Amino acid sequence: MTRYVALLRGVNVGTTRLAMADLRRIVTDLGHDDVTTYLQSGNVAFGSTVRDAEKLAAGIERALADELALTVPVLVRSGRELAAVAGGNPYADREDDPTRLLVAFLATAPEQSTVDALAVPGGENVSFTVTGREVFLHFVDGGYGRSKFTNAYLEKKLGVVATTRNWKSVRALAEMTAA
Fold first, then answer.
1. In sequence order, which residues have a C-beta less than 8 Å from that of residue 173 and are 6 or more positions away?
2. Which DSSP state fits 92?
3. Angle in degrees, CA 141, 144, 145, rounded to 5
4. What is the pTM for the complete model shown?
5. What tens digit of pLDDT does each residue of 130-154 get?
6. Which of 116, 122, 141, 169 has the fewest CB atoms lying closer than 10 Å?
7. What tens digit of pLDDT does each residue of 24-74 get?
8. Start-to-end C-alpha separation, the chain
9. Does the CA dihedral 131-134-138-142 come out positive or negative?
10. Strand 101-106 to strand 162-166: parallel, antiparallel, or no bridges (unpaired)?
């Protein structure tokens, strides 16, 4: 059995409302084990014998649509992938404040040309590193909430679905999915 986390985009931060009890029930009803949620923002860890993250994501998306009429992008990472993210942040040694470190998880790796063209909006002091299906973010002068370098900005510029988590959440999810 492999541990995974499903990251739902845009849940409980705008108009898309989802009770975590409903999310746990749906993931459990799909046949997954040891289902737990983290915070109220669409993070669910679970164990599964299915070895295909895209299939897992599609199953959760379909169940959310069928049972709750919610259209929510779902990204899935294995515990091993999350451990690599948690251990590979190029900014972790430069910043003590976890609210200034974030990771944008991408549905697919973006085209290199879009990565090469990605730039921070004028006047902002943000460092970023795109590594495969993740974008590590360091908000040097302030928090994510005041920035224009947002999840929506990344999606538009990179041309892929993304969902962003702060560093505290990334570390907690990595612990929840550790083998």
1. 5, 38, 43, 45, 82, 165
2. G
3. 110
4. 0.95
5. 999 999 999 998 778 889 999 999 9
6. 122
7. 999 999 999 999 999 888 999 999 999 999 999 999 999 999 999 999 999
8. 10
9. positive
10. antiparallel
